[in-house]
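I would like you to sit down with the pair of lines that follows and say whether tokens and residues agree.
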Amino acid sequence: MRSVAVRLASEAAEFVRHRRGSVDWTASVRTKSSETDPVTLVDTDCERLLRKRLASLRPDDAILGEEDGESAGGASPEGAGQPSGVRWVIDPIDGTVNFVYGIPAYAVSVAAQLDGQTVAGAVADVVADRVFSAASGGGATVREANGLQRELVCNPVRETQLALVATGFAYSAVRRARQAQLVAQLLPRVRDVRRIGSAALDLCGVAEGRVDAQYEHGLGPWDWAAGALIAREAGAVVILPGVDARSADGALIAAMAPGIAEGFGQLLTDIGAIAPIPG
């Protein structure tokens, strides 16, 4: 399943790269949850590509996608035609706002789950042409643009006040206001804060040591399913909501380098970030 995830994320990333320069933005962008929450024709076309490839490679698996929701498995015409118990969780473009504006930080995320737990996943950094991947108990790696692959390990940082922290903000104005309050409390107590614009890449950033911790409220499972596994397999301590939590729940996800997990977890508790943020 890890190999399938890497293959699909790589193919989808190539599709997104090819389409980026040929999109008519005046006709291809619409909004979802709010006026600031865009979805493009490339998002929907890329998800259709991923679903088509999964239907061919894994016809008895279920699929949960950001754009088209959930579909059951058991569609195999030549097999038993029974659901396999595997669910693929896909995000065709994580960081759509960056994609629309041409900011080079957006990704394709593909994860496989068994009984609600992610067991394999891949995140393709579209612009950098890098593919992160992991399997449960099998470690985490990144394949660079030149084809070389290396193991991922979190930073050895041990002091919370020296942590570089990634976060993101919701599209709901109410939730965004509360998130701003949390950042204001957090900022004096860490090295600095980064807002990159892709939760999947933030989680991979924890895995490879580009940041020391990540936290965000209100993400859908397509945002974190692959990246959280990659971070965990690189040694991070990860906090996740329920396996079926959707963006509207306002629950927290977080990933922390192991040396600061206790201190940063306590800091999140102190500033009130552990509780869900209603939207």
Observations:
- The chain has a mean pLDDT of 91.
- The longest helix spans residues 2-20.
- The radius of gyration is 18 Å.
